[in-house]
Amino acid sequence: MRRRPAALLTLGAVLVLGLSGAAFAAAPSFSTPIGAVAIPNVDDGASLAAPIAVTAPAADVVAVAIPAPEPKAAPATAAFSEMKHVWQSLNNCGPASVVMALSTFGIDVSQEFARVPLRGTNILSGMGPQKVDGWVNANFGLRSMWRNNGTNDLLRRLVANGFAPMVTQWMQDPSISRIAHWRVVRGYDDAASVFYVNDPMLGNMVPLSYEWFQNNWQSFSYRYMVIYDPKDEALLKAIIGDDWNDTHMRKNFYERTKADAYAQDSSAAWLAYGEAAYGYGLFGEAVSAFERGMALGSVQGVFTLRSSYPQALRALGRQTDADAMQKRLSTSATSPTVASAPDPFALYLAFAREHTGDEAQLVP
Hints:
This protein is α+β, with helices and mostly antiparallel strands. The protein folds into 2 domains: 77-241, Cathepsin B, Chain A (Alpha-Beta Complex); 248-354. It is built from 13 helices and 9 strands. The chain has helices at 3-26, 93-102, 111-119, 132-140, 152-160, 210-215, 233-240, 246-264, 267-279, 283-296, 305-315, 319-329, 344-354, and strands at 37-38, 53-54, 77-79, 143-147, 166-170, 180-189, 194-199, 203-209, 224-228. Strands 3, 4, 5, 6, 7, 8 and 9 form a 7-stranded antiparallel sheet that branches. It is globular.
């Protein structure tokens, strides 16, 4: 009779195990854990009722895409109602144009205030776009960007959306004078097919036909610059589109100017193609295009050529030819013949193109 409790205990254990197995078999199966369960260490004498901490699963973070602002379509006519006009001092078209563009923000400063920071002290030096961004940011909290490959349509859309672009062009038709010049686009009128510009040499609200504007912009790579409030950068990016990316702009500019050179076969078209090929790191094409452009017409006043042509030759290892071309293109003994240092991004693109088979992925 004393063995019965043991038998009952054994039977009870079997039933418990059997029921437990049935319970586990009936339990749903989870393919993924629902959370991390932290089980405390149970020492001898520790309470089995100790709480078990369950960490809830982390919620997935969903990125919310903020839609880009939608630029306004350019109407048939648009213009800035308020933009001051400044008559430039000697060789000061760049700073004078910057000052006129700043006036659209309600900023009134003199061209002399801008002259030395943007041009330097050499009276023979013009203004490039590179220093403008730092200067307007430090003094007024604004920004500036510039690109080549501008178009008439792009300028219309910029003005329609409240931006006052500056452009580098011939001051007058090159058959009259060959002076590179900055001016500010103030408005346009499709019915008259004209842009209105505030020009530091020619006057206020000067009309320039769309055709004249396009033709006299080509020799300077269709360069434009925009001063803007940082809060409007997304809108400006949306207007400029693919060319906001410098690599894409160089490719687009190269393809455009190459097609134009073969279609137009003019000195200006071939020189623009040379500049675009140089900027895209295709130095052999650049040299060939420059040679063709120089054979078809005068290059006097095309200041970018003084840098890009010799530098393209140097990139090809033709140092002697580069020195000879540098001397040939020199316009003044007191100003540097090579207007700027080699374009580092052009050199990078050439290197990346040459090493596309390397294991390292070169992405600008």
